[in-house]
Amino acid sequence: MISQYEPNLETYERERIVLENIKNNADLHHNALLKIIVPKFMAKTTFEKTRDSLLEKEIITVQRKGNMKFYFLTENYEQKSQRHIERSTTNSFHDLKLKIKKLDVDYPHKDVDQKIIIANSLLRNLLNADNGFTILDSAKNPKKTLYKDEHLMIQQLIHQIFEIIRHDKDFEIIFPTIVSYLGIIMPKDSLDE
Questions:
Q1: Residues in Cβ contact with 144 at an 8 Å cutoff, skipping those fewer than 6 apart
Q2: Is the model's pTM score more than 0.85?
Q3: Which of 5, 13, 69, 98 could form a disulfide with 30 if both were Cys (CB 3.0 to 4.6 A apart)?
């Protein structure tokens, strides 16, 4: 079973094929590009879904000339993606701090399933935010931790969630379920498995 955190190699391969063909054939309009890719590499609907995904992620842009569409790789994508990561990570981080601030009051009144879902969601999102800050640290200055305060705050927020769980009346049911879930998103022992 593939978790949502493992890469879907088919999707990446399709994106790579579309990107390569756009890069190598910047002068071709939509239908001409379609003829190169379909059916040799993928079906038409798969191409359209892949193209839409690349447009949504702003990896490619579209330009209309008359009634024809031309696709281009987004200029300065590296800088734009870094700004996007920074904006979404920071927004997510601040949103999580507010949610966790209210957790002491709200959590005890939920049923067991809701408690598990809330804790899992908050922990997953905190780990994602921490990963975002780690990526930004490595992109901006790999020799220095620029987001030290944020990393420390995430560590404290994770601890706070576990403290709330630890003091909950349903601790013996909730804690093992959450730890089991965390096992799915924790790194495997080896990349060779």
A1: 137
A2: no
A3: 69
